[in-house]
Amino acid sequence: MEREDRRHAISTYCKQLKLSQRVVTLSAETANEEQERFLYEVLRSEIERRNHSRRVNRLNRANFPTRKYLDDFDFTNVHLPTGVTIDDLAHGSYIQQKQNLIFYGQVGTGKTHLAIALGIQACEQDYAVGFFTLSDLVLRLGEAHRTGHLEKLMKEIQGLDLLILDEWGYVPVDRQGSQLLFRVISDCYERKSLIVTTNIEFSAWGAIFTDEQMAAAMIDRLVHFGYLILCGGPSYRIANALMRKNAAGVVEVGMT
Q: Which residues are within 8 A (CB) of 170 and not within 5 positions of it... i.e. 6 or more apart?
């Protein structure tokens, strides 16, 4: 690295670390090249340490139930809408544009895996992410409402760049829970991205949330700036279970 480039990097690191630019001036005036190189390495190392620590903290705060990664995901049976590519998802362009992703498919087709993998990718890109099953979020909202901590919880959610709601519609939600959830969806609208995983068609959401109009309003906010991504094919869990049995010689499964 040329000395001028190194000094420019030192200046940038000082800004990131909130150090005075006097460091750059003193380095230029009094340090020899070896000393300046040492200063550069110290600052670079500290930036990398802080970035790593911040990513680890984001991953821990996201509350993922397990770790899943895009490199391990098979996109063969995933149908992306026109204008959306795997690279778009991986690079987080939907987060930058505050767009929503709705993963629809039957149980075991990889919806949760893909949601977690994109969430972890977003953490690596320095976005604040929160992961909830829908039932867990509704329980937390209800508890916060009863104990007077609702606004605190809402503020935490508002601080996210990406909110992931897994297992949408797997269990019914009572009227109060639906109202609290609707507030979350409304607060997120045009302000942050959501990822929703569901095996329930839109037409059945009214029965899940006990109110057709409220369900319609949620759908409207989710799809207005969103993409529906279809996860098809056989259940990964069933397929993997059968593969393990075959490998162990327990059963043989004929394919037609």
A: 133, 134, 135, 199
Spatial distance between the Cα atoms of 59 and 119, rounded to a whole number of angstroms: 9
| Residue 189 DSSP one-character state | T
pLDDT in tens, the chain (256 residues): 888 888 899 999 999 999 999 998 988 889 898 999 999 999 999 999 998 899 999 999 999 999 999 999 999 999 999 889 999 999 999 999 999 999 999 988 999 999 999 999 999 999 999 999 999 999 999 999 999 999 999 999 999 999 999 999 888 889 999 999 999 999 999 999 999 999 998 888 888 888 888 889 999 999 988 999 999 866 555 445 544 444 444 443 333 3
Q: Report the C-alpha gap between 237 and 107 in whole angstroms.
A: 9
- The token pair that represents 65 in the structure block: 């139930």
Nearest to 93 by CA among 157, 161, 186, 188: 161
* Residues 91, 15: Cα–Cα separation, whole Å: 26
Q: Report pTM.
A: 0.82
CB neighbourhood size of 4 (10 A): 9
Q: Which one-letter amino acid corresponds to residue 228?
A: L
Q: Which of 213, 199, 191, 128 is nearest to 164 (CA)?
A: 128
φ, ψ (nearest 5 deg) of residue 167:
60, 45
